[in-house]
Amino acid sequence: QVHLVDSGGGLVQPGGSLRLSCACSGGTFSNYPMAWFRQAPGKEWQFVAGSTGTSYNTNYVDSVKGRFTISRDNAKNTVYLQMNSLKPEDTAIYYCAARKASYITLLRSGYEYWGQGTQVTVSS
Q1: Pairing with 21, which of 4, 6, 81, 109 sits 20 to 30 Å away (CA)?
Q2: pLDDT, tens digit, 9 for 90 and up, residues 46-82
């Protein structure tokens, strides 16, 4: 059974940076496309970024392109989300997710495994 643990959230001022981590146990990490989603209060779930398992192809929602970077260390079974130039509208709970199929999907329903979430608050 795959188990994901998110960490790294916190309170940061606008323009600041945070790095989220998601540690994976169980399964073969390098086989899984990994993604980050977020949910802000009163808003829909949103795909933020995704990375395939071994080819390192990535995908981002337009609103974070150039500011966020998803990366993975398959030796450490960990995926990261480096978030720079943070804005108040980035405030949300961020969740990492993994799926069995080999390609990234933007659909929340396409992911079988989820972390518990980590709160990111961008405020002055």
Answers
A1: 109
A2: 999 999 987 678 999 999 999 999 999 989 999 999 9
**Tokens coding 15:** 């323009």
Q: How many CB atoms lie within 10 A of CB 100?
A: 13
User: d(Cα 15, Cα 122) in Å, to the nearest integer?
Assistant: 9
CA angle centred on 15, ends 10 and 19, rounded to 5°? 40
C-alpha 20, offset from chain centre: 7
Give every residue of the chain whose pLDDT is below 70, as ranges: 55
Half-sphere exposure of 82 (CA within 13 A, CB side): 7
Give the C-alpha separation, 121 to 124, whole Å.
Answer: 10
